Amino acid sequence: MTTPQRSSHSPAEHTDGASTSIGSATRTVAGLTLGSRILGLVRDLVTVRVFGDTAIGSAFAAAFAIPNMFRRLFGEGALSAAFIPEYTRLADTDRDAADAFASLTIAMLALVTGVITVLIEIGLLAVVIASKDNPDRVYSLELVMVMLPFMPLICIAAIMGGMLQSHGRFAPWAAAPILLNLCIIGASVPYFFVADASAHRWAFVIGIAAVGSALLQVLWSMHALRGLVRWTKAVRTAHARARTMLRRMIPVIIGLGTLQLNSFVDTLIAMYPSWFGSTLAGHDYPLDEASNAILFYAQRLYQFPLGVFGIAVATAAFPTLSRHADNAIAFSQTLRRGLRLSLYIGIPASIGLFIVREPMLMTLYGKGGFSESGIARGSAVLGGYSLAVWAYSLNQLYTRAFYAKNDTRTPMLIALGAVVLNLTLNVTLIWRFREAGLAYSTAISALAQCIALAIASRRLTDSDGHSGGGSVRSGLTRILIGTALMGVASFGAVWLIAQPGSWARNAGALAGASVAGAGIYAIWSILTSMPELRWLIERSTDGTRKATRHDDKEL
Fold first, then answer.
1. What is the pLDDT of residues 426-448, one digit of tens each?
2. Could you tell me which of 425, 354, 418 has the C-alpha nearest to residue 387?
3. pTM for this structure?
4. Of the candidates 359, 352, 379, 358, which has an alpha carbon nearest to the alpha carbon of residue 298?
């Protein structure tokens, strides 16, 4: 077996290759995720008109959030982050070992998540039987029971997606969520054509469709892996690697899953009225039965740019960071470019979402979806979440950089502090800001986590003298100026066009602000020759090398 001769390449070539791989992979993931998210937006437009901002909508949102939390923690989070670095290195050097490691990981995941699912189902059944005097709680928990099998299936599919990414195939897994959206849309649309259809019952139909979509995603991922992985029962040689991976998982669950854990805590707090009643310790609870539906659908909107671009950058960078963990220059340059791409996309996304929050809620969730009160409350929630889209993106990248260096302890400790801060702010701010207090708490804790990770990450690169911090600051200056220009254009469009209570005027304001803001930012990027734009659109490795060398000299 031939050992890869990375030493034969110059540092500049490593740097240029990293730039190419991240930019190209980010473009692939972001493009397909954009298509999936657009379809997901259609899904939300349909389901919000089935459920609205009601107790049924809140119950469905909670039932969907619980298995999704496990997916993000295990499938796309902790296990994936602990699995990908080792699998990537093995896939490069020892295919038989990589196949054994992958086969054992999938088998273990299926067993563990299957057992967890059965135990939770039994526990929920016991609670349902004991809660006959609380129909809202029974209904909500029955929905959770129907949708819980989504968890083991989607976790298995997500690990397969990580394997595809390690082989440089980002497209199949980025496209997989399209199956979920199509299944839910297909199950939801007949509701509008069935006489006397009940949203109360139809939620179960949609939940079953979601579980079916997870099975389809497993089959889709297995098909995409043909020729790349040879499944085997001879996994004894992988036992030691699997034990090491499992030891890393617990801190990774906390470190990478902070945003998911915080969102899940938000769900529990918002579901309190449905599960426990309208009072707490003799005081009126500040949230109501519509709160979780409002929270869920507002979250979906800030997760749109985060999923399309922010997480796409971290996803694209992670295999490259893992591959270059022992190459100081290549690792530092990969991280630097990931940071700049995240800021280039995340900062304008944060400001833009905040500016168009009300026209967006009115356009997407008005007219048969949210009530007028729900629109106002949802706008406040979206405004709170939107302020930290850039921080959520950086946290994903920073955390993966630590994992690529096999350091799971540092991001875990920082994340624990962020979770405690979020919970403290949650129980404080909801009394003043209602659901928006949960959003502000998430944003503030994400910002604190980002600052702590940025400070701690210096030791990953500074000791080698290749951190590139100055170039990140230089790029940030142009990003902030471009964002300010974009913000002025977007705010002007909203101020001129939007009109309270008018769906058409708000839709026009949303479209005008989006086109004006995106246009101004693109023009600024071109006029100032911002390299981040070239990294996203450049297809030629040679061209990227030339551009990167020019950028390095310039910065």
1. 999 999 999 999 999 999 999 99
2. 354
3. 0.79
4. 379
